[in-house]
Amino acid sequence: MERVLEPELMDDPVQALAYARADFEEENQGFVDRFVEFYPEFKAGHVLDLGCGPADIPIRLARKLPESRITGVDGSAPMIAIGQEAIRAAGLADRIALRCERFQNIVLSERADAVISNSLLHHVPNPLQFWYEVKKLARPGAVVLVMDLLRPESEEAAHALVDKYAADEPAVLRRDFYNSLLASFTEDDVAAQLAEMNLTRLLIDVPDDRHWIVGGRLT
Ligand SMILES: C[S@@+](CC[C@H](N)C(=O)[O-])C[C@H]1O[C@@H](n2cnc3c(N)ncnc32)[C@H](O)[C@@H]1O
């Protein structure tokens, strides 16, 4: 099945709120646990989260790594507003900063020690822009953890995944999940992107029936 693009930013307030209210605990905590498992030596430093959405992953990571500092970047103003409120409620405003910008426009005063991103790449029309920015924004030796959806083989397979994992979710979320599956990349696509960007030290894995994950250290 060919990739079908979806809008880059989630800047509809209704869509942002539905996303923020959805239960991504297993996926988001799994992402954070994987970061700690892959990089047990990473205790302190500056982590950049590209496409941070409502900041659930930055909050979970900040709790797990109490000496870290996190910058979340998202181009959607409603997402950033929801994230700011969540960070304030979590009492983590001294360690998590959010920036309402497209990641393509981000300029950092110092390159990050880690770059993470969950569920952003499928929104991006040109995925090479994303990997280019990862290289540019992270220092040599920085750790990387990127996860996203895996494009199914057919529309029927995408519908089946929506039914399996989002049966009880509101219609807006089911629609977004379906569109995101169609906009996402296959394992081969991502491997080709990494090769083209000379990021072959990063390794790709497929941990379940709907995700790929890329991790490793930059040279
Ligand atoms: C599916 S959400 C994932 C949010 C979060 N990472 C999570 O796992 O809960 C994707 C987010 O990426 C943001 N986004 C899409 N394109 C972007 C871009 N070019 N720059 C910054 N943020 C972007 C969207 O606005 C949206 O909030």
The whole-number mean of residue pLDDT values reads 97
Strand-pairing-aware structural class = alpha/beta
User: Looking at CATH, which topology would you report?
Assistant: Rossmann fold
User: In what range is the share of β-strand residues?
Assistant: 15-25%
Strand order of the largest sheet: 3-2-1-4-5-7-6
The ligands bound in this entry are: S-adenosylmethionine
Shape: globular
Order of helices and strands: HHEHEHEEHEHHHEE
Stretches where pLDDT is under 50 for at least 5 consecutive residues are none
How many H/I helices? 8
* Main sheet: strands, sense, barrel: 7 strands, mixed
CATH architecture name: 3-Layer(aba) Sandwich
How many structural units, i.e. domains? 1
Rg over C-alpha atoms, rounded to the nearest angstrom:
16 Å
The CATH H-level superfamily is: Vaccinia Virus protein VP39
CATH C-level class = Alpha Beta
Give the termini separation.
Answer: 34 Å
Commentary on this structure:
It contains eight helices and seven strands. It is an alpha/beta fold. The chain has one domain (13-217): Vaccinia Virus protein VP39 (Rossmann fold, 3-Layer(aba) Sandwich). Helix content is 42%, strand content 22%. It has a seven-stranded mixed sheet, sandwiched between helices. It has helices at 13-21, 25-38, 56-64, 77-90, 127-137, 155-166, 171-183, 187-196, and strands at 44-50, 67-74, 96-100, 112-118, 138-149, 203-205, 211-217. It binds S-adenosylmethionine. S-adenosylmethionine is lined by residues 8-10, 24, 51-53, 56-57, 73-76, 79, 102-104, 118-120, 123-124.
